[in-house]
Amino acid sequence: MSVIQALRGTLGEDRVLTGDDMAAWSTDWTGRYRWTPLCVVRPGSTEEVCAVMRIAHAAAVPVVPVSGHTGLAGGTHGDGAVMLSLERLNAIEEIRPEARVAVVGAGVVLSALHEAAEAQGLSFPMTFGARGSARIGGLLATNAGGSNVLRYGNTRDLVLGLEAVTAEGRVLDLMTALHKNNAGYDLRHLLIGSEGTLAVITRAVLKLVRQPRAHATAMVAARSVSEALVLLNRLQDVSGGAVEAFEYMPAAYMDTYLALHPEARAPFDSPQAVNILLELGVTAPRDSTPGEDGLVPVTGSLQETLAELMEQGLVLDAVVARSETQRAEMWARREAAAEVSLSRLGALVNDVAVPLDAVEAFLTEAGARCRALDPDVQEMVVAHLGDGNVHYALWPSGAAEGGALVEAVEEVVRALGGTFSAEHGIGLHKKASMARHRDPVALEAMRAVKTALDPKGILNPGKVLP
Amino acid sequence: MSVIQALRGTLGEDRVLTGDDMAAWSTDWTGRYRWTPLCVVRPGSTEEVCAVMRIAHAAAVPVVPVSGHTGLAGGTHGDGAVMLSLERLNAIEEIRPEARVAVVGAGVVLSALHEAAEAQGLSFPMTFGARGSARIGGLLATNAGGSNVLRYGNTRDLVLGLEAVTAEGRVLDLMTALHKNNAGYDLRHLLIGSEGTLAVITRAVLKLVRQPRAHATAMVAARSVSEALVLLNRLQDVSGGAVEAFEYMPAAYMDTYLALHPEARAPFDSPQAVNILLELGVTAPRDSTPGEDGLVPVTGSLQETLAELMEQGLVLDAVVARSETQRAEMWARREAAAEVSLSRLGALVNDVAVPLDAVEAFLTEAGARCRALDPDVQEMVVAHLGDGNVHYALWPSGAAEGGALVEAVEEVVRALGGTFSAEHGIGLHKKASMARHRDPVALEAMRAVKTALDPKGILNPGKVLP
């Protein structure tokens, strides 16, 4: 019996797609990768995921787990593979307000979880542009980052427990809602960020946080990235660490965004070199009652602080959002990042991070190195500046080989103690960088772990490890 | 050439101890475990640790890493083993105030790091009673918990990077100061909490936090554990999540403490059933200027909040610390926990955690189950109540077998979705519990990882995995 027949026998005809029905699972959001799967399976329970894995394991057929298709690193490429879609595991099983946890399936869409948490006065603080499509399984598999990491950490910091299915089709039960649990190796953190190469994540227990009772959101123009970081520290001091997002968009980014969105408004009356989107979230009730000016105090106090900093010359211009509409308009600029960066054919994406105090040096040095190779190269930068995470896209003119430009960027990153993959992961896209820049002893340990947990090498083969 | 000769040849005579010189490395703090090592080595650098591991690996001799000897689970037991002491790797190599990180050796004593961070206006927020002896290597190897986990997380949440030496004596370089880094499997989290069974941690990059500019510390008497948790939520709401510690000491604990420390004062005028030590830390400057009453506002506002809650009957009595001396007196009661729990011969220590909303049920049910087995058993409880982490010691009368009492407690824990090991780890002490209560598929995955990274099984053999 063929693998497809065996899968159909177990899941039912309509849960195993082939031919043209596989179109949606034969490419990813970037369009950069295209492949031809063996078939697509759509199991509806953990038990069915186990059955799929048992069949694939017996036949030694590769399996590529996939949820929202929004990855940027080719992590779901699967020529000849069983594409294991987790989208039907989309139950928000439980929201426990007292314990501040959510129990969810891997197929839950991020924005659906946002809404469910908010309905209980809580918040799941991980967020990014693709939240309407990205699903929890993919978030965990890639340890997704985003715009609130500054305050709430990466995806892994928001996961208390998880359930996964092993390569041979058994349930690995790590479901717990505890904040302290020292009972053996932390397999949870090993699976998070392993991009489906060690096991298939099927469910998770996620931390929720108190929903900020008030947000203060502003666009600020600064003279330089370094001065923007002084501003960040000042705001952290004044607010007691309440800054949730601190996002950098240079002039070239803003120009491209406005060109792609003729209906959109520029953030300031005159164009600025350093545009910062910042947001504070405050939970204490004393900060949430609107004052005489109609602003909640946190917004008022942000306005005062920014006014002071303008007097000191640290802030060149500033606009504080006075409504949810204005706040949404500010965020729309930032959340077009992937669209903006990839709007030119042949764009080279670098998702790097360096220590905060090295961001300015990185931008200067990487720019110089790239222009030495390709004088007409254009940089398209957008950054989670508060984390030191720079999305450093390059639009080459063709004067230099793309790989040479990426290597040049990565050498600057490495010299500054940074990483070539901050939040997008490795997939296929950054495997060469893994080989170039990760410690060989660490790579060997990763390979040993991979072989230990997936001896036949059927789980998302060819990804992550060079 | 014998292993001892080889080690002496490499490290020098005086860095390899044998015979009576090994006394300090032949038992741990509890005195419960005693053993006879092969020898004790005291390397002074990562390179020397590599050399030790190469010699041990070639000879297939067991190696037990040890730093501060303050573990409670027998994790450093080492009959016939090379005791690898990390205490000489005690350099605080760097404190980078801008990046808020410390780079330290595994031998740094926790309180030394506290002082070094404070000298820069920062704080390393992990703390517990043994901070004057415990060393960073042990903290990381056991993922130490303590009293501030509620706000700052466990040890693993404070580690950005680390360096370790593998079983075969090579340097595993995971040193990074980045907050976002998705470049392959997270070996850092795999090593943290693995109790020296996968590699020897030699250095680390640790997160520092802004030092709270003001603390408000109080002892509060509540009617019940459940009402104390209502109080915790109320304080979190009012302070915007600034509660750093919320510690529970019942009457029996307080009585024993006072009996052991005749010089100490009782917390309240009359004895109380539910004694809570709580502490808030506030970083914003607006809360740190003393008011007319000489109290910083955060203390004043705690006093007001507690007065309101007394009127509502939720708080029975309360004392707010008005000086550092009073604060230290409050903490001294809590930090005698290990001494108090183990002050009776034959004490059975259970370090459990349950979801917050199940703590009261745990205490009631565990007490009933234990008294059914041993009517004269005495409970000696102290808890990090804000984390659901209960140190549930039992002083048995001898009417029941100790193992039966522990199993009864663990069954109650498991039924409530809890863990039998919250922060102390497994070592030798909780191996039977691992076998009873952890998912067999998870145990198998852990064993596969152990074999992959330490094929000869020389690193702290016999620990953690049943």
From TrEMBL, chains A, B:
Quote the InterPro entries the UniProt record gives.
Answer: FAD-bd_oxidored_4_C, FAD-bd_PCMH, FAD-bd_PCMH-like_sf, FAD-bd_PCMH_sub1, FAD-bd_PCMH_sub2, FAD-linked_Oxase-like_C, FAD-oxidored/transferase_4, Oxid_FAD_bind_N
| Keyword rRNA-binding annotated | no
Q: Where is the FAD-binding PCMH-type domain?
A: 33-211
* PROSITE patterns, per database record: FAD_PCMH
Q: Which UniProt keywords apply?
A: FAD, Flavoprotein
Q: Which domain of life does the protein's organism represent?
A: Bacteria
**Keyword Cytoplasm tagged:** no
The cross-references to PANTHER family, in alphabetical order and at most eight, read: BLL6224 PROTEIN, D-2-HYDROXYGLUTARATE DEHYDROGENASE, MITOCHONDRIAL
Name the family the entry cites. Belongs to the FAD-binding oxidoreductase/transferase type 4 family.
Q: What is the protein name given in its UniProt record? A: FAD-binding protein
Upper classification of the source organism reads:
Bacteria, Pseudomonadati, Pseudomonadota, Alphaproteobacteria, Rhodobacterales
